[in-house]
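Dear colleagues,

For the upcoming journal club I promised to circulate an example of a predicted protein-ligand complex. I picked one with protoporphyrin IX containing FE because it came up in last month's discussion. The inputs are reproduced below in full, followed by the predicted structure.
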Amino acid sequence: MTTLQPAPIPDHVPPELVRHYDIYQRLHGDGDFQGWFASLHDQGYPDLFWTTANGGHWVVTRGAILSDVLTQPQRFSSRVQIVPRERSMATPPFPISLDPPEHTKYRAVLNGAFSPKVVTPLGEEAGILTNQLIDGFIERGECEFMGEVSRILPITIFMRMVGIPYEHRDKLLALVDEMIRPTQVEANDAGAGLADYARDTVRQRRASPGDDLLSRLCQATVDGELLNEDQLTGMTVLLLLGGLDTVASVLGFTMNQLARQPEKRRQLVENPELIPKAVEELLRRFPVSSLGRIVTAEMDFHGVQLRKDDMVITPTMAHGLDDREFEHRTAVDFSRKVVFHGSFGNGPHRCLGSMLARVELRAFLQAWLPRIPDFRVKAGVDLVVDTGMVVALHSLPLEWGSES
Ligand code: HEM
């Protein structure tokens, strides 16, 4: 992977707040990116620090600071969300790139797409699909979980929802992967490729509407006006980025964990009614997204001087893995009371697909655990975490049955 040369440290950044942090640096080992993030404080990283990587930006490591950034859009704008900022797309995801009050009315257009009436049947489909996928490899006694399950299940559900043909899956996955976890930080045109795909889809739906979400968005109005082609293209890009990748990534980290903790698995196999609570705890323990914001005015923020146009990265791990928010933060404890974990963000942009994500994760575990209750990560495997705005395991080889 190519990353940019370190940026010079600006005058307003005190040297004691500078630390190494490259959001695109791959991690090797047991696949526990979130545990690694939690260890930053033990290594003396401050609650809010500056890195010279990827154009130079602030990084938040505490839940309280994360909430303050995400709930104050007038001070921390979503206008730029990616580092280095030059990687921002010409047609940005929409309306996530707007701030309130404009954002609010366009978000309302998307709300109906994620109502319980829409989402509940998708959960049933996820359960059926999980069983079909398992049928394909259960006898083999092994699978590469990311390729054979994780990257197929949520995407299939999502593609049905938006009416995108299944044959486009591999092409789209490659574009989304390169956009979120680039192998080339400089000279990256995956964003343009994704926007082109979205624009073509929008044009096609406008010309011949169907009964899918994208066709309905093409008919939606805000202040009495239909959305224009750029707005619809940006909305499609947002749905692609939100729907194709995040659930797949959480599934991977969840299964890596369960594969290593037989007693947790057994708890869920013997008490399947615990699964909804377990999903919440797994979402807390394995957040995957880092959110970018741009500072709108000079300010003193948690004792640190921020300057207009500074970029701030808020890894959602900063909440769920914060020892001020959760005792024994790296332990997975299904009896833990999780009121708020921050893994779906906070403030005006908090995740619209959170109910769909929860429904899919529950349906997956309810289908998998009775059929393959005992499984493990293949011995001696070095797991690679592809990092970026959403982190994900590159692959996860699992096996079950007697050890060879
Ligand atoms: C476990 C899975 C998921 C995680 C961890 C997740 C995480 C997030 C986070 C952290 C945000 C806030 C972004 C920001 O503040 O800049 C967000 C926003 C969003 N997510 Fe998700 N997401 C997940 C699943 C989904 C799914 C399945 C969809 C839809 C298919 C989706 C659609 C969206 C949309 C549309 C927004 C933008 C909301 C807005 O700007 O108002 N997400 N998601």
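Two points we might discuss: Residues 70, 78, 95-96, 107, 110, 158, 238-239, 242-243, 246-247, 250, 288-289, 291, 316, 343-345, 349-353, 356-357 surround protoporphyrin IX containing FE (CB under 6 Å). The chain has one domain: 15-399.

See you all on Thursday,
B. R.
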